[in-house]
UniProtKB/TrEMBL annotation:
Belongs to the flagella basal body rod proteins family. InterPro entries: Flag_bb_rod_N, Flagellar_basal_body_rod_CS, Flagellar_FlgE/F/G, Flg_bb/hook_C_dom, FlgE/F/G-like, FlgG_G_neg, LlgE_F_G-like_D1. Transmembrane segments: none annotated. It comes from the Bacteria. GO terms for cellular component: bacterial-type flagellum basal body, distal rod. The keyword Metal-binding does not apply. PROSITE patterns: FLAGELLA_BB_ROD. NCBIfam families: FlgEFG_subfam, flgG_G_neg. This is Flagellar basal-body rod protein FlgG. It is found in: Bacterial flagellum basal body. SUPFAM superfamilies: Flagellar hook protein flgE. Pfam families: Flg_bb_rod, Flg_bbr_C, LlgE_F_G_D1. The lineage of its organism: Bacteria, Pseudomonadati, Pseudomonadota, Alphaproteobacteria, Acetobacterales.
Length: 260
């Protein structure tokens, strides 16, 4: 009774689908979170009569054949990189990217990670860092006696000193990848480059192909709760239907066993 094992693969696939949806909904308030989408493929087919083979009786070619599919499997979980809406925060060290690109941050082991979470802070040494204390790459230091800090759309960090004089403390760099979905998520809104993502292309905000920096804004999650709930209901119904197939198959086997 292949229907039981086929339906079981459907239940496993929908379980994975629900897990992906649950993660999306859990991160609906996570800064710059990109929703995920589960993708599936059908499994191998068993052919009792291969399409295009010759008929043993008439010597003609079978136009259709007989193939029975063996179910489905999860093939990938794709990251949807559509930009989320920008929310004003009033914090001068909060930065949002309007357009393509990632901020670079330096991890303790010297590895450069990438993020769109621009909720930056100042370290005790005056360095612009993430909420976990990882500095921007390249590093930008704000003088201790700075009266005000302005970061324009081109990423230039303009510091106003106590005497009113202004100086350029550095410039925010951005990074692009040929395949953003190929980045490896490590948690904490951080990503690492992989062979699938390709090497990072470093540029500056407002350059051609790169996004702009918006000071005192943060990018919200691109999760649409209504869409996720709709997909959750569909996954739940598909799971129930597969369970009904197993139940019906079991009843059919019971009927066959009761034949005298």
């Amino acid at each position: 009774m292949r229907a039981m094992s086929i339906a079981a693969t459907g239940m496993q696939a929908q379980q994975s689908n629900v897990e992906v949806i649950a993660n999306n909904i859990a991160n609906v308030s996570t800064t710059a979170f990109s929703r995920r989408k589960a993708e599936f493929q059908d499994l191998i087919y068993q052919s009792s009569e291969r399409v295009g083979s010759s008929s043993s009786e008439a010597g003609t070619v079978l136009p259709v054949g007989t193939q029975i599919g063996l179910g489905t499997r999860s093939s990938a979980v794709n990251r949807i990189t559509i930009q989320g809406s920008l929310t004003e925060t009033g914090n001068k060290y909060d930065l949002a990217l309007e357009g393509r690109g990632y901020f670079g941050i330096t991890l303790p082991d010297g590895t450069v990670a990438y993020t769109r979470d621009g909720s930056f802070k100042l370290s005790p040494e005056g360095q612009i860092v993430t909420t976990e204390g990882y500095p921007l790459e390249p590093a930008i230091n704000v003088p201790q006696d700075a009266k005000d800090v302005t970061i324009n759309q081109a990423g230039e960090v303009i510091v106003t000193e106590a005497n009113g004089r202004q100086q350029n403390a550095g410039r925010v760099a951005l990074y692009l990848f040929a395949n953003e979905a190929g980045l490896e998520a490590t948690g904490g809104n951080k990503f690492l480059e992989t062979e699938a993502s390709g090497q990072p292309n470093r540029g500056l905000p407002s350059d051609e192909g790169y996004g702009k920096v918006r000071q005192s804004y943060l990018e919200a999650s691109n999760v649409n709760v209504v869409q996720e709930i709709t997909q959750l209901i569909q996954a739940q119904r598909a799971y129930e239907m597969n369970s009904k197939v197993i139940e019906a198959s079991d009843q059919m086997m019971q009927t066959a066993n009761n034949v005298r």
